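Renewal narrative, Specific Aim 1. Our central claim is that a sequence can be written position by position from structural information alone. The example that follows is taken directly from our test logs and has not been curated for this report. It begins with the structure tokens describing the chain, in the order in which they were read.
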């Protein structure tokens, strides 16, 4: 019997019904770079009959433009299930109309969402044990990074778009949650997003007034990497202190098994600065000690001369 699956926590157990009950290989179309990545990591690339055009793979497979494809165009590929992350071009209604199984796994908003989606994909492609092991390993590494990350009272502006409007991340996004977890103040953390995506639109005035200590650019939507040429941005603390970092846009936009690298990269932005501050504090303390010793020696010498 054909059925549809929507990404809801209460329905995760249903995902096992999608997999083939016999040894026949399931036929999967992944219209999501994130979930293509997950499938590869779990060793299930042989289940893929087609993937999103932007997915990075090292084996021959049909590529599809997830932004424009219609369900009718997928029918000849005879998929057992289609994995989608976004409902582009009305694809979900189209899949329902064509009686094609699908699972909708939208962008994760928390690290727990990441783990659950990996396990869901593992269920779909009959890689449950591989998914469980991967999640265990990710939890250990991410928890280790978070346990060693507390960068004090520093602020960050994270940019995911500029040319067609300034877009950032708030506390309802995965990256926003990561910033909270590593103890960094996200200047857009409390900004509202009317669409509930976790990616609010900001004004340049808001960014300039916030004057962040760090800027992280997680997109390639720019003509020039020199942010100082933006009107009013040259005086920002982050720009003046060269605390502007460009995050690989593929890493920044995916929420799959590379989330470990994402957490590590974001924590690494502030790590060097934290070490520099510790070094600076050490030099200051050393200077004070030298000054005290010199004062002590001078006082002793003066006292002896008076005697």
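The sequence written for that structure reads:
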């Amino acid at each position: 019997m054909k059925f549809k699956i929507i990404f809801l926590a209460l329905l995760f157990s249903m995902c096992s019904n999608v997999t083939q009950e016999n040894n026949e290989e399931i036929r999967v179309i992944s219209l999501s770079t994130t979930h293509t990545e997950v499938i590869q990591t779990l060793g299930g690339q042989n289940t893929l009959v087609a993937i999103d055009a932007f997915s990075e793979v090292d084996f021959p497979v049909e590529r599809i433009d997830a932004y424009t494809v219609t369900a009718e165009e997928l029918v000849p590929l005879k998929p057992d299930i289609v994995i989608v992350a976004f409902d582009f071009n009305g694809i979900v209604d189209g899949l329902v109309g064509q009686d094609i199984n699908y699972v909708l796994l939208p962008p994760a908003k928390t690290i727990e969402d990441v783990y659950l989606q990996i396990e869901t994909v593992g269920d779909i492609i009959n890689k449950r044990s591989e998914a469980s092991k991967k999640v265990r390993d990710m939890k250990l590494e991410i928890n280790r990074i978070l346990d060693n990350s507390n960068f004090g009272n520093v602020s960050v502006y994270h940019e995911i778009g500029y040319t067609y409007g300034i877009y950032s991340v708030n506390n309802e996004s995965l990256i926003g949650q990561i910033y909270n977890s590593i103890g960094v103040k996200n200047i857009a953390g409390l900004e509202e997003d009317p669409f509930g995506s976790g990616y609010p639109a900001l004004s340049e005035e808001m960014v300039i007034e916030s004057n962040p200590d760090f800027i992280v650019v997680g997109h390639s939507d720019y003509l020039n990497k020199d942010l100082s040429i933006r009107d009013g941005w040259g005086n920002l603390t982050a720009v003046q202190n060269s605390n502007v970092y460009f995050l690989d846009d593929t890493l920044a936009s995916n929420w799959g098994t590379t989330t470990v690298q994402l957490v590590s990269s974001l924590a690494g932005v502030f790590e060097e600065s934290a070490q520099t501050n510790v070094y600076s504090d050490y030099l200051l303390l050393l200077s004070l000690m030298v000054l005290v010793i010199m004062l002590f020696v001078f006082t002793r010498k003066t006292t002896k001369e008076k005697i």
